[in-house]
């Protein structure tokens, strides 16, 4: 065991862990759930730490030897090493401080181990010119931007597939219904074209919301004024992050506004929730239209898929429960 101390007091830390006292406190302070922080969020924070070390060294505010050691530590983490040290829980308090300090402490200990005779401090060195209030929201936006391309690719494929079905079924007449009551004739071509139009709108909404995520407050530090960050750092940090990962980040028009308001993230969340709702609605439609085959509508024939079953015996009866299609869009 090793003893570390912060403003609260001393704490014994396991000798073989790379994180420190702040992370250890977080693990006991927030035992709310077992959900881990998303790896993309950790990755984005590590990229920010690497860029900050490079810019701070160029600004003359960080020892070059420490900068190189920090960069080397970040590189090892980005290559997938020491992932067991990134343990800060996803559900926490204090605006992401626990996750930020988890990264700071791990990077600092790795860098110190490389330098041997020079200690790298998690706050003074790794977190230099930064605050959780600008690194954490920037990392969150970076993580969302990295996760989005596969989703957009899948959504584009879905739209093309629905368009193809609309063409294939253009002349297949069906009953149009309102509140499940027979209304007027229509075609399955119209139905599938409507689905495609719905998801085209979702794709456009996601694209617009993602563009707003590219404006970040990195360099604004605690409240957006840039206190304790050098002018050189403030003017170069976002550019350096873009050198490390091409997300086309740009400085927010108003750093104080970007630091204290989350409307951009709310809008992106809303676009994602809208997509999930629309996927659920279409899945429900298809499930209903394929119901049967004897006592349901049985208008559509969906490809056979292996279901998930839980079988158990109770009073001589065998009961089976199959996950409904409604849950699939949210997986």
From TrEMBL:
Pfam families assigned: Lyase_1
List the transmembrane segments: none
Q: Which GO terms describe its cellular component?
A: cytosol
Q: Which GO terms describe its biological process?
A: aspartate metabolic process
Q: Where is the Fumarate lyase N-terminal domain?
A: 10-307
Reading the lineage from the top rank, the first entry is Bacteria
Q: What is its EC number?
A: 4.3.1.1
> Gene3D superfamilies, alphabetically?
Fumarase/aspartase (Central domain) (1.20.200.10), Fumarase/aspartase (N-terminal domain) (1.10.275.10)
Keyword match Lyase: yes
Keyword Nucleotide-binding in annotation = no
Q: Which UniProt keywords apply?
A: Lyase
The top EC class, named as a word, is lyase
Gene Ontology molecular function: any one = aspartate ammonia-lyase activity
Q: What is this protein called?
A: Aspartate ammonia-lyase
* Origin organism lineage: Bacteria, Bacillati, Bacillota, Bacilli, Lactobacillales
**Name of the gene this protein is made from:** aspA
């Amino acid at each position: 065991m090793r003893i570390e101390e912060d403003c609260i007091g001393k704490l014994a830390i396991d000798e073989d862990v790379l994180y420190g006292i702040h992370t250890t406190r977080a693990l006991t302070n927030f035992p709310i759930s077992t959900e881990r922080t998303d790896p993309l969020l950790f990755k984005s924070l590590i990229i920010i730490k690497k860029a900050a070390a490079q810019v701070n060294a160029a600004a003359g505010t960080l020892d070059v030897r420490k900068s190189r050691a920090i960069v080397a530590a970040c590189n090892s983490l980005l290559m997938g090493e020491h992932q067991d040290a990134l343990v800060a829980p996803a559900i926490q308090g204090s605006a992401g401080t626990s996750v930020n300090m988890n990264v700071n402490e791990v990077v600092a200990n790795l860098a110190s181990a490389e330098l041997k005779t020079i200690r790298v401090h998690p706050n003074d060195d790794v977190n230099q010119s930064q605050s959780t209030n600008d690194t954490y929201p920037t990392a969150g936006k970076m993580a969302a931007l990295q996760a989005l391309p596969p989703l957009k690719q899948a959504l584009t494929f879905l739209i093309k597939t629905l368009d193809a079905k609309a063409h294939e079924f253009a002349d297949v007449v069906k009953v149009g219904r309102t509140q499940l009551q027979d209304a007027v004739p229509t075609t399955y071509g119209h139905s599938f074209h409507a689905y495609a139009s719905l998801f085209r709108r979702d794709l456009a909404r996601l694209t617009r919301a993602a563009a707003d995520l590219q404006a970040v407050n990195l360099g604004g530090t605690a409240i957006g004024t840039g206190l304790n960050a050098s002018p050189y750092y403030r003017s170069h940090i976002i550019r350096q992050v873009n050198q490390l990962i091409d997300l086309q980040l740009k400085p927010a028009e108003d750093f104080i506004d970007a630091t204290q308001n989350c409307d951009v993230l709310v809008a992106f969340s809303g676009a994602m929730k809208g997509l999930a709702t629309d996927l659920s609605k279409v899945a429900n439609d298809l499930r209903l239209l394929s119901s049967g085959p004897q006592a349901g509508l049985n208008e559509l024939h969906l490809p056979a898929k292996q279901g998930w079953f839980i079988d158990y015996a109770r009073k001589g009866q065998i009961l089976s429960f199959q996950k409904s299609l409604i849950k699939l869009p949210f997986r």
